[in-house]
Amino acid sequence: MWLSLAFMSALLLGFYDVAKKQALKDNAVPIVLLLNTLFSTLLFLPILLSSELGLGWFDTTFLQFEALDVESHLRIMLKSAIVLSSWVFDYIGIKHLPLTIVGPINATRPVLVLLGALLIFGERLNLLQWAGVTLALFSIFLLSRAGKREGINFASNRWILCVAAAALLGAASGLYDRHIMRDMEPLAVQSWYNLYQAVMMGITVIIIALCGNKSALKWRWSWAIPMISILLSAADMCYFVALSESDAMISVVSMIRRGSVVVSFACGAVLLREKNLKAKALDLVFILIGMVLLWLGSRA
Fold first, then answer.
1. Could you count the other beta carbons within 10 Å of the beta carbon of residue 159?
2. Among 196, 234, 268, 300, which residue's Cα sits nearest to residue 5?
3. pLDDT beneath 50, residues of the chain
């Protein structure tokens, strides 16, 4: 079951990346992030109120969870801070870079998660899974060569560095998820961390406004903004439930989720008409082969 949920999460994340790119086209990052976290909070607010106040709206369904203690709230606050930091860098990068560059870079995040999983959780991969990881690493080299043809130097481009920072923080979040999901309910984590992120972004936007930086708050309405929240919330729900299963491997789940690059790459090519697709497509092929090898390895 956890493998199926991981693949569903990947599909939703692909469309989520496309919605982000469209929402950020004429909008400032802080505003899009604020609205994203706010809409996500509103989506889960009925579940949160029912569970925490004992209203019983969703009794006997998987949408009901137990009220949390203070320690659990503190752990979720830490997760919120990590994820929000990753999103800030990711949104900045995706605003200024082609989707066909950002997608494949994000697809290699599980390599970082793998290293942490090996060191912290003692997970071990078989030969097929290691082959998949090797191909993912090779894809980074291919992507850097394709980027140079568009004048993007991976070593010095600040937008690439933002995406790299987002990847590191995203890997940290993935490892932390595996830790807290052992004794916390998925919907409880998702409901509360959305709320805490909305509060954090609200404070951030107020500070920016008080500093008088109007350009950092420029925005206009786009239906892509609420779609970010809807797609991400659905993808995260699949992700958290997958990790809550006792036999789930964080390294495999995270790698499968990066299969979202297929959707985002296709949309970048067809809808956004981005350039240098042949070279990037080769990188994508290696990533896809790596995903298949990881899946086969997990079934062995």
1. 17
2. 234
3. none
